[in-house]
Amino acid sequence: MPQSFLSRRRFLKSLGYGSAAFALSSSLLSSCTTGKKRPNILFIFSDDHGYQAISAYGGRLKDIAPTPNIDRIAKKGMRFNKCYVTNSICAPSRATILTGKHSHLNGVIDNRVKFDGSQQTFPKLLRKVGYQTAIVGKWHLKTEPTGFEFWQVLPGQGQYYNPDFLTPEGKKRETGYVTDIIADKTIDWLENKRDKEKPFIFMMQNKAPHRSWWPATRHLHLFDDVTIPEPFNLFDDYSGRGTAAHKQDMTIEKTMRLAQDLKVDTKDKNGAQLERAKNRMTDEQRKAWDAAYTTKNEAFLQKHLKGKELVRWKYQRYMKDYLRCIRAVDENVGRVLDYLDKSGLAENTVVIYSSDQGFYLGEHGWFDKRWMYEESYRTPLIAKWPGVIKPGAVNDDLVSNLDFAQTFLDMAGAPQPQDMQGLSLVPVMAGKTPQNWRKSLYYHYYEYPAVHSVRRHEGVATRRYKLLNFYDLGEWELYDLEKDPHEMHSEYDNPQYAPVVADLKKELARLRKFYKLPPLKPDPKRI
Ligand code: SGN
Ligand code: CA
Predict the structure, then answer these.
(1) In the list 108, 216, 252, 450, which could disulfide-bond 95, CB 3.0-4.6 Å?
(2) How far apart are CA 388 and CA 515, in angstroms?
(3) Whose alpha carbon is nearest atom 15 of ligand 1?
(4) In this predicted model, what pLDDT tens digit does every residue of 125-172 receive, in sequence order?
C-alpha cells in the first residue's frame, strides 16, 4: 500500500472516522497515490429549472431560448440524461442533497416540515476534512443553515427584486435583481472572502426561475417578437391516466392566475396583490416594468380571449417570463465561469449545474412539479471536472439527487458514511460506471392535501419503465417510456404488461426494504 494512502488513512482516523466507515473509493486511492490536489467544488443550483429549457438537452426551446453558458459546462464536461429526484419538490430535494438520504429518513417529507439541522450532512463532513463550505441564495429549509462556514440565504421563497438575505449577522436587504446578486456574492466570496489555502465547496443557489417568474428589467423585452413553440400535449385531456392526473390543480388553463402569475393588472383583489408585490421595486425598476407590460396588457384585455385562445396567450406570457428568468441565470453562470477561468481556479474546480427538480413548461397543460412523470421527476445535471470528465461526455446511467452528498465527499477524498443511501458519481464521471450500477430508483411524493392537489404516490423507475402507486386512491399506473415517452397512456391494465408489472412490484418491495421505508398507510380521506 502506498505511503501516501497510509498517511491519509491515519489522518482521517485522527478526525474521528472509524475503519468501519471506510468506504474507500477508486478516486480517493488515485488522488492519494498521485498526490493531486483535492478539487474545489462549485455547485450551481436553480429552483424549478426544467431540462427542456437548457439547450444542451435539445428539445423544442433550444433555438429560441439557448443557454450558451450552461452549455459551456456540458461541452467541457458530462451531461446526465437520467438524473432523477427522490421527491419532486423544493425543500425535500434540498434535504436529500444535504443528507444523502430519502425524505422519510432526513425528515423533510414535504415543504411544510422544518429541517433538523443537527443531523449529519455533507458540509459538516467536508469541514472535518479541511474544506471551506459556503452557501448563498435559496435555502428554504426553515431552520438556519448548519455546517456552512459562510452563509447568506433568502428567507423562505425569497424575492426577485431588492431581496432580503438572512446572514449570521442578521437580515440585510440588497438592491438589484436576485440572480445577479447571488452571482455577485459568489464571485466576491471566491475572490475576497475565502481562505485561499483551503479547498472549498460553494453552493450558488438561485431563486430563479421559480413562480411567479419575474424577469430582470434588462430582459423584459426579450422574446417580444417571437412565438414560443407549444408542446404537443398542451391540451391534454388526461385520458389513459388515472384519477390523480384528472384531479390536479396545476393547469395553465385553470390554475395560472392572470395578475399574480402573468402580470396583468386585473383591477380586482388579484391585481391589488400584484401591485403590493411591486412595492419592493425602485422607481426605475417599476418604470421599466410598467413600460414592458402595460401596453401589451391593454391589447390583451381588449381581445377578450376565451377557451383555447386564452390558454395559448397565457402559455406565451408564462413561457416568455420563465425563459427571461433563465436568461439571467445563464448570463450569471457565464460570469462565474469567466471568473474561474480568469483567476486560474477553473483548472482544479468541479462545476456542477442542477435544479431542485424538473418543471412543466406546458406539457400536459401544466406548470409546477411534484409528479413522478418525466418533466418533474427528471432534473438537469451537468458537470465539468478538468482531467477527470472527458469533454462532451453524455451519460445515460440512472443517477439521483440522492447521490450528490456522497459524490462531493468522494471528490474530497472523505469517507462516505454507511447510513447515506446514494452512490458516489465519481466513477461514473470518470467514464467507469461499475458493472453492478443500480437498475432502479425509488420515488415518493407526500404533500397532499396541498397547493396544486397532486395525490400522494410512490413508485419505482427503471431506464425503460415506471410503476406509480397512488396508494390513497388505490390506483396504479405503468408507463413504457420506450413506446410512450410522454406518458400519455398507462399500460397497467394491459395484460401484455402483466409480467413487467409483477417484476416492478417485486422491485418496489425490495427497494422499500433496502431504503428502510415504514409501511404505507393509505388514507381514505386523502382521495
Ligand atoms: C408556492 C407556489 C406554488 C409552488 C410552491 C412550492 N405558489 O406555494 O406554485 O408549488 O410554492 O414551490 S405561489 O403562488 O406562492 O407562487 S417550491 O419550489 O418551493 O417547492
Ligand atoms: Ca423548486
Answers:
(1) 108
(2) 30
(3) 211
(4) 999 999 999 999 999 999 999 999 999 999 999 999 999 999 999 999
* Helices 90-99 & 404-411 angle (0-180, nearest 10): 30
Closest CA to ligand 1's atom 19: 90
CA of 312 to the centre of ligand 2 (A): 24
Atom of ligand 1 nearest to the CA of 48: 18
- Separation of 3 CA from ligand 1 center, angstroms? 53
Residue having the nearest C-alpha atom to atom 8 of ligand 1:
451
- Give distance in angstroms: CA of 510 to centre of ligand 2: 29
User: Top-level CATH class of 456-522?
Assistant: alpha beta
How far, in Å, CA of 454 to CA of 138, rounded? 24
Predicted model pTM? 0.94
Q: How far is the CA of 211 from the centre of ligand 1 (A)?
A: 7
Calpha distance 175→309 (Å, rounded):
38
**Model pLDDT for residues 175-231, shown as the tens digit of each residue:** 999 999 999 999 999 999 999 999 999 999 999 999 999 999 999 999 999 999 999
How many beta carbons lie within 10 A of that of residue 462, not counting itself? 17
Q: Where are the beta strands (DSSP E) in 262-365?
A: 349-355
For the purposes of burial, counting CB atoms within 10 Å of the CB of 35, is it exposed (0-12), middle (13-18) or buried (19 or more)?
Answer: exposed
Q: Which amino acid is at 56?
A: A
Cα 253 to Cα 124, 250, 367, 486: the distances in Å are 45, 8, 10, 20
**What CATH number belongs to 3-213+319-435?**
3.40.720.10
| Rounded Cα distance, 117 and 100, in Å | 14
Q: What average pLDDT does range 432-443 have in this prediction?
A: 98
